[in-house]
Design a protein that fits this description.
By secondary structure, the chain is mainly α. The chain is built from 5 helices and no strands. About 75% of the residues lie in helices and about 0% in strands. Helix 1 packs antiparallel against helix 4 and helix 3 packs antiparallel against helix 4.
């Protein structure tokens, strides 16, 4: 995940330097690898760290927050354009956001297993086994 966000940040920085149409070719490979790496990585990351029981709720909350960002994004990018007649500042700021994600992702540690149901039998113990194996029961 960290590598995908770093590659996306690099791609956005490259895109902010484009002054001629042919230079866009330097942007596309990095953006494709960065975004393409994060798309399957995010759900796997969430399932690994938070378990399958919480996966749906976390996905729903993440998509809600992403939707709010997608609504604000064009307005955010349009404001610097209106002020400077260039999107460069917007892409540099977006790149900084992706770069900020790199140390945050690297600092995440997998939470310890809950001790309240350790050693118990029944549905809680089975759910923990399913979460640990990341398979559906």
């Amino acid at each position: 995940m960290a590598a995908a966000y770093a590659t996306t940040a690099l791609a956005l920085l490259l895109y902010s330097t484009v002054s001629q149409g042919w230079q866009v070719r330097t942007f596309f490979p990095f953006f494709a690898v960065g975004l393409g790496g994060s798309i399957p990585g995010r759900p796997a990351f969430k399932a690994e760290f938070f378990g399958l029981r919480a996966f749906g709720a976390i996905q729903g909350l993440a998509f809600t927050i992403a939707t709010l960002g997608e609504l604000a994004g064009p307005v955010f990018a349009g404001w610097p354009y209106d002020m400077t007649d260039s999107y460069r500042l917007a892409f540099v700021i977006l790149s900084a956001g992706s770069l900020l994600a790199v140390p945050l992702v690297l600092s995440v540690h997998k939470p310890a297993a809950s001790t309240t149901t350790a050693g118990s039998t029944g549905p809680h113990a089975a759910a923990q086994v399913c979460d640990a194996q990341l398979t559906a029961c």
